[in-house]
Write a structure and sequence with these properties.
alpha+beta; 8-stranded parallel β-sheet; globular
């Protein structure tokens, strides 16, 4: 190694950096690239004085490492209530709520709304490095490349300003002066992470809701030396129908005189077991002007490989210009694929495909920024593939190059957005800066990443407001449909919809949504079944329909997650939840809350996804999210946590039973029925594979809770092509021979393919069967004189407060979990996350239940009022409701205790109305009554009669 060499010391503490020995820049294995990663000098400029003060001429003393961020190296100000965040908060008074002061440590402010860095800085920061230009580079054109800046960069070489860039999605590149002399030079960068262009304060490209408003450069930082002719860009248009690839070669002549050479194009397949290399193509090229484009068709041969989710074959294209005095080379990768539409279906290479997607909202807690390395993205895409998904939408941002490369290799279809979310005061189409930015950023994105086969869809961004938004987005989509047909375009994710859209991403086809104007909660509003789907919605559209941000079913957070946040961002909100649980005497139940609510969340996701898979002709769905969303008030909506880890209540194998390329389905009108009824289910399948599913036999089994097979049968089926909701057969049987009340499950198997799925259903006794009253139990809605006398005499009272509980003792509850979260949507009708109980408790001896919500609880919970029992410190509810994690109150539907000399059970379930039509509620009533009349009813905890009278209206003494 020569004197320009350096030694790299790798530290595994969040970033990799180099300590240079001797002169700063080396040839770094290739004589045309100089790596500038390592130690840099820096200076903060919070008052924005650096430009006027000519800081590019100064020498900075403090040091840090790039690639990296200020926050990642603990540089900036401590977070306070006055920290200038970017992001909307529905109710800003929440920052100053007394509760958060009370729950926070004395010396620390804990942020309740999103992840928080230890240190925060917004504004310009200056970065400086001494570089050395080797003698061999003299007279050569040199470009500085900064991958992933946040946000605006301005660069000086010595005293010369090289300009500014403000892309959020693509590398910032600067041409160094052509008369640059060999030797030492001072390179100075000013990175400003202020809100440069109003793209929407919630856009995940800039918002503190997710990735955070970091300052720095987190990808490659390097100098690139060019030859007299350089290949600036290779744009590849695959043509499946004609078996060729058209390559646009963009060449720059740096000499000012005519230069010629021989251009060679060589292809080699990658990422496949089968190797394929079409014949190379070459041509003589001559360039007189500064830039010239050459178009070359490469025949791919009859045996070329295609790219899709099943066989993601990638071709590496190497273009080289050979001249007597120099050689210059450029490479790119692409796939032979055609991602298009047929009616309301997506097709890839002519084969129908269904998008099973999740969002990526730029959530990287430990890194503190989107990673720019291949390994991080490979882990992410392997995880979603393991959970049966094939698609990812980047919500209001675009990932770095490494994400596209990993998606190429793993066969993931990507939808990219141009860093914008035009709501919260930003409007489209009225001449605001966002209009120009959307076009410029989309051009930069397509130029940088357009060859990647995984780049299948693009939108301007998420949702869009403005009276002229539709017109603007129609023109935007029309522009891109004409300019680059390699992918599909839509106006926006969510809304508005335009006639130019090649596919539609809107809100209708999902099971729950809450807005102040109106709510839809299908599972809440309808008896449990599996026969609902969205064909009526799909019929209204003339292209593929992708349901927008489905799911959003909350579970309780995992408090133990706190210790796993070891990097830049910390989950202050978990500290707040933990403190409030402890304050309310519930901390010991945190893990139970997690698992019980998580099981119910999983059941809801199964219902949501299967509804989409039953819908013939549907294009796909996009979950919000497969993992938790630690912003916008914190939405614990994921089967995985924000670190892409399983939480312990659902595995990838379990998830794939209802979310995969082939899924078995049922359509049954009832999941809760009586023994007099007949169980009936249509059996269907959703298949989206690389090949047709050959003819075979489906096996079905009826099982009880001990997994004993009670009934079974086989259904033959013919060969199945790709499609949703394909009918196979029908299963039916009488319930009168089944024990009731009880839980059963229907299991379906394609044993030759290792595919299975199952559904719980519940059978209850006949509604004609009377529920006998018991004289030893006094059932009442108020603590009247008879109730008080019975308690004084040592008797048993059942106090049903459903119709008499005071409003201040109730909590908004329901069957389904919280939508998104109650900090962002405090007005929503449900503030609970399902039930928690001990199934072994004798109150449930005649009522089938697990410790979590399932379909048999629908009628009970939709006809209940959850009691706020926080003031009953020594009482553990027999039937508990799990409160929203933003309140963490003790809530319940049934509690019991000693009162006076007697015993009392208090419930808040409606047992008065329509009981002749409510088999589950009727059975729970009977089970409670039987328990109260038994010697097993012997509660130990004391309940104050005065506390009960405070809770109930219309007392009679």
């Amino acid at each position: 190694m020569n004197k320009r060499s350096f030694t790299c010391i790798i530290f595994k503490q969040g970033f990799v950096f180099a300590i240079l020995i001797g002169i700063i820049v080396s040839a770094c294995n290739r004589d045309h690239v100089a790596d500038l990663s390592g130690k840099w000098r820096y200076r903060l400029d919070p008052m924005n004085q650096g430009i006027d003060g000519e800081w590019y001429l100064a020498h900075f003393d403090s040091t840090l490492y790039l690639p990296g961020t200020l926050a990642g190296q603990n540089i900036g100000d401590y977070v306070t209530k006055a920290t200038p965040w970017i992001g909307a908060i529905i109710d800003s008074t929440l920052w100053f709520h007394e509760k958060y002061d009370r729950l926070s440590p004395d010396d620390q402010y804990l942020v309740p709304f999103w992840l928080s860095p230890k240190k925060f800085y917004t504004g310009p920061a200056w970065y400086q490095k001494t570089i050395n230009i080797p003698p061999s580079w003299e007279g050569s054109p040199v470009t500085l490349e900064l991958e992933r800046c946040h946000w605006e960069s301005t660069v000086w070489l010595n005293s010369v300003c090289l300009g500014s860039r403000h892309s959020l999605s693509t590398p910032h590149r600067y041409d160094l002066p052509t008369d640059l002399q060999p030797g030492k030079h001072t390179l100075t960068m000013r990175i400003d992470n202020s809100y440069i262009i109003p793209v929407g304060i919630n856009a995940h490209s800039v918002s503190d809701n997710t990735q955070g408003n970091w300052n720095g450069v987190v990808g490659q930082i390097r100098l690139i030396r060019h030859k007299p002719l350089s290949i600036d860009d290779l744009v590849v248009y695959p043509d499946i129908a004609n078996g060729s690839a058209r390559v646009h070669v963009h060449i720059t002549n740096h000499t000012g005189t005519a230069v010629s050479g021989n251009l060679n194009l060589q292809l080699l397949s990658d990422n496949t077991h089968t190797r394929h290399s079409p014949d190379p193509v070459s041509m003589d090229v001559g360039v007189r002007q500064s830039k010239k484009e050459f178009v070359i068709d490469i025949p791919m041969g009859s045996d070329f490989l295609t790219w899709d989710e099943w066989n993601p074959a990638v071709y590496r294209l190497e273009a080289e210009i050979i001249n007597e005095e120099f050689r210059t080379k450029q490479t790119t990768s692409f796939g032979m694929r055609d991602f298009s539409t047929r009616g309301t279906q997506f097709v890839i290479n002519g084969r129908p495909v269904f998008l099973r997607g999740t969002l990526e909202c730029s959530i990287f807690p430990n890194e503190g920024h989107p990673p720019a390395d291949y390994g991080s993205w490979e882990r992410i895409f392997k995880t979603i593939r393991r959970f049966g998904l094939n698609h990812m939408r980047f919500h209001s941002w675009c990932p770095p190059r490494a994400a596209f490369e990993a998606a190429d290799h793993l066969g993931v279809y990507l939808m990219v957005e141009c860093g914008a979310w035009a709501t919260q005061g930003v409007q489209l189409g009225v001449g605001e800066p966002i209009d120009h930015f959307a076009y410029e950023e989309s051009r930069r994105i397509v130029r940088e990443y357009g060859n990647h086969p995984s780049f299948c869809m693009m939108a301007y961004g998420n949702e869009g407001d403005g009276e002229k938004a539709v017109t603007f987005l129609e023109e935007f989509v029309g522009y891109w449909k004409t300019k680059d047909p390699r992918r599909l375009y839509t106006s926006s994710a969510g809304w508005p919809v335009t006639g130019e859209n090649q596919f539609f991403s809107t809100l209708q086809a999902r099971l729950q949504e809450w807005t102040p104007e109106g709510s839809t909660y299908y599972i809440e509003d309808n008896p449990p079944s599996t026969d609902f789907e969205y064909s009526g919605i799909i019929e209204e559209y003339d292209g593929p329909f992708v349901s927008h941000e489905i799911g959003q079913w909350c579970a309780y957070p995992d408090i133990s997650e706190i210790e796993r946040y070891t990097g830049t961002y910390r989950p202050d909100y978990l500290q707040l939840y933990k403190a409030e649980l402890e304050e309310n005497g519930l901390l010991h139940q945190a893990n139970d809350f997690l698992h019980a609510s998580g099981k119910w969340q999983s059941i809801c996701y199964k219902a949501e996804i299967e509804a989409a898979l039953r819908t013939r002709g549907m294009g796909g769905f996009q979950l919000l999210d497969l993992r938790d969303f630690p912003g916008q008030g914190v939405a614990i909506v994921g089967i995985l946590n924000a670190l892409w880890e399983e939480k312990g209540y659902m595995t990838a194998k379990e998830f794939r039973q209802f979310c995969d390329s082939t899924v078995l389905l049922t359509a049954t009108e009832r999941l809760v029925m009586t023994c007099e009824e007949r169980f009936q289910a249509d059996i269907m399948i959703s298949h989206h594979g690389a090949v047709s599913l050959p003819a075979g036999t489906l096996r079905w089994e009826l099982r009880d809770t001990s997994q004993q097979v009670l009934k079974q049968g086989n259904l033959p089926y013919d060969q199945l092509e790709n499609g949703n909701g394909q009918h196979i057969g029908h299963v039916s049987f009488d319930n009168d021979l089944l024990h009731s009340p009880a839980k059963y499950s229907l299991h379906l198997f394609l044993q030759d393919h290792g595919i299975e799925n199952s559904w719980d259903f519940f059978v209850f006794p006949s509604l004609a069967e009377p529920v006998e009253s018991i004289n030893a139990v006094y059932y009442t809605h108020s603590l009247d004189s008879a109730a008080l006398r019975i308690l004084e005499n040592g008797g048993t009272v059942w106090l049903d407060v459903h119709s008499t509980i005071r409003e201040e003792y109730t909590i908004r509850s329901g069957f389904t979990p919280v939508y998104w979260n109650t900090l962002t949507f405090p007005g929503q009708p449900i503030h609970t996350l399902g039930i928690l109980c001990d199934p072994r408790h004798p109150v449930f001896s005649e009522f089938p239940t697990d410790n979590h919500t399932n379909w048999q609880w629908w009628d009970i919970l939709t006809n209940s009022k959850a009691m706020n029992l926080t003031s009953f410190r020594n009482i553990s509810p027999v039937l508990q409701m799990i409160d929203t994690y933003h309140a963490n109150r003790k809530t319940g539907l049934i509690m019991e205790g000693k009162a006076g000399n007697g015993s009392i059970l208090i419930s808040s379930i409606d047992f008065d109305h329509g009981m002749d039509r409510r088999p589950a509620s009727r059975q729970l009533f009977k089970s409670i009554l039987t328990y109260l009349d038994s010697d097993r009813f012997d509660p130990a905890d004391e309940i104050s009669v005065q506390a009960l009278t405070d809770m109930v209206i219309d007392q009679v003494w």
